[in-house]
Amino acid sequence: MIGITGLTKSYNSREVLKDVDLRILPGEVVAIIGPSGAGKSTLLRCINMLEVPDAGRIHVDGRQVFYTPNARGKLSVVDQFRLTWLRREISMVFQQFNLWPHRTVLDNLLEGPVISKKQKRADAVPRALEKLRSVGLEDKADAYPADLSGGQQQRVAICRALMMDPKAILFDEPTSALDPELVNEVLDIMATLAKTGMTMVIVTHEMKFAREVADRVIFMEHGGIVAEGPPDEVFQHPRLRVYASHLSH
Amino acid sequence: MNTYEPGSVAAEYFPIFLAGALTTLGIVAAAIVCATVLGYVIAVLRLSRIRALRIFAAAYVWFFRGLPLMLSLFFFYYTKPFGLTMDAFTAGLIAMSLNSASFFSEIIRAGLKSVNVGHLEAADSVGMNPLQKFFRVTAPEGIRLMTPPYINNCIIMLKESAQISVITVPDLMLQGQKAYNSTYNVMETLGVVAAMYLIMTSLLMVLQIIIEKKMGRKMGTTKQLREAVGSMA
Hints:
The complex is a heterodimer of chains A (about 250) and B (about 230). Chain A has about 250 residues and is of the alpha/beta class. Chain A contains ten helices and ten strands. Chain A has a six-stranded mixed sheet, with helices on both faces. A four-stranded antiparallel sheet of chain A has the order 2-1-4-5, with helices on one face. In chain A, strand 1 and strand 2 (about 15-25) form a beta hairpin. Chain A is globular. The mean pLDDT of chain A is about 90. Chain B starts with 7 loop residues before the first helix and ends with a helix. In chain B, helix 1 crosses helix 4 (about 90-115), helix 5 packs antiparallel against helix 6 (about 130-160) and helix 6 (about 130-160) packs antiparallel against helix 8. Chain B is mostly helical.
């Protein structure tokens, strides 16, 4: 589904990703864990080109992603037009939700299919309402993001990602900005989604979630992958045990 | 010498004042449009990755923001710059546009810079191209942030436009001067002219309130209004 080889990325001569290789299979749920500054989010954001790697090959669904960074390490304008296909195949859920504050919940869901994918609004509306119903927010369709709690906003953001009918969804620390009591309502929805066979790549600090829901766990440190494999195996890795013991104190 | 009854200047010269007010409105409206377009270009240059463009834009702002409007007016009207002879209206329009563009560019730059990066990345993440991103996210969010200083600057332009009377554009101020030169009733003339300026600036303030209401936190109402109007037609 997603293939990454030799991915390298630096910010001002500081190497954030060092020659990272990664393969994600269709339907796989992969959790990327590790300390802050390990390069987890950068790796995730390179997959849909929100960050542009300095070097490395990326394949998505059998297509190679060709890219040229501009001086700010972002996509050139030409590539932004050329690579819309990539963003339409791979959705993203952000730490800060990033719902558009000037649009209703329903309109937030419709932007992707209607504006980006040129689907008919009349066809997309029932799908959007269906998605909202599945996360228990059908009565919030006409509300604005500012009227919702963080957990509700993140559930809407997951719906927005699903509206693209993506081949995979990237989650960038989806619960890190939430109050503790709101974390579970988002994790529950992600766990349900994982059971439907959606391909998911999740950067998270929720160890319990990673252990229970992920098919595979990737542990990163200092811009490289230290350990990867089934959760039970990876959680026995000595480096990870050191990291996890820091977390629990 | 004639003596005038109270109220007679207002009555006799009202059509002339009205013509002057329309000239003022016309030149200010045209200058706002030109200055906004030019200001947007300067703002984008100022945010450019290319250093030379940034410096050019900064120099433009430095130059025109630092010069009196009156000086630009005299330059374009009296010196026949680059061999161009232009009428007073054109000279006034060019001077006002160039001058105000420096202020608008700063307002627009601030607006563009304060658009939330996360909201732009969200637009990327659903596969919008740069044009869609601009019209669906940057513009609506930026306009909401820019409206108060933008309208404020428009009001300043309207008032400052009185200076174009010195290069003989027949605006409201010049018509007022003509009226009191021939009637010697300065007080009443200025009163009428002041009232007309206040009406025009008040309209802009009302416009600001309307835009802010529509584009406030719930900017979605703009769209709902559009749809409501569309379904009535």
